[in-house]
Amino acid sequence: MLAPARREFPQSSPLVLESTAATAYLECLQQLERLHRLMHDLVKDEFERLGRHDLNPVQALILYNLGEAEVSAGELRSRGMYQGSNVSYNLKKLVTMGYVHHERCDLDRRSVRVRLTEAGQDVRQIVLDMFHGHAAQLAVSGVLDDPPLDQVNLQARRIERYWTEQIRYIY
Q1: Which residues 6+ apart lie within 8 Å of 22 measured at CB?
Q2: 63-115 pLDDT, tens per residue?
Q3: Measured between alpha carbons, how far is 125 from 127 in angstroms, rounded to an integer?
Q4: How far apart are the first and last CA of the chain?
């Protein structure tokens, strides 16, 4: 079997690095990292304000992303982009704490399906209410209008699609 072709990236010449597009892309990557960390801090602060110290932000966001669905851990990983061992560990903790119900799939006994319990739904609602409050405040301030957030989301989906294609290209 032939080894997969190695991807060649353009050499980083000063002209490439100074280009407006490359600079904006690198800034976008840094901003995404900061936003992700800040979202975790916001969730942590909200739960501390409510006196809820039993969940960490990752666990609360797993409950939020699980939503009304009944899914396998693999599906949750692909939807929420959680790392494999991280999501497995946190799901086990959430089951133990009574936030998630799990059962073996009838068709494939190796697969476990998970869904929120009533307590898990309550946590999801806390996070959802917090996000709705943020959206309302940002809408009033006009932050979501320039550029329109739907255009920002479209661009993010395009970058996501490109990254996904890059990962598939490797394998």
Answers
A1: 16
A2: 998 888 888 777 777 766 566 568 888 988 999 999 999 887 776 666 778 89
A3: 5
A4: 14
pLDDT of residue 72: 78
Q: In the prediction, which pLDDT does 70 show? A: 84
Q: What is the 3 state secondary structure string of the chain?
A: CCCCCCCCCCCCCHHHHCCHHHHHHHHHHHHHHHHHHHHHHHHHHHHHHCCCCCCCHHHHHHHHHHCCCCEEHHHHHHHHCCCHHHHHHHHHHHHHCCCEEEEECCCCCCCEEEEECHHHHHHHHHHHHHHHHHHHHHHHHCHHHCCCHHHHHHHHHHHHHHHHHHHHHHC
21-25, 42-46, 60-64, 166-170: least confidently modelled range: 166-170
Q: Report which residue type is found at 64.
A: Y
All structural domains of the chain: 54-170 (1.10.10.10)
Q: Is 60 exceeded by the pLDDT of residue 6?
A: no
Taking the C-alpha atoms of residue 9 and residue 2, their distance in angstroms, rounded to an integer, is 21
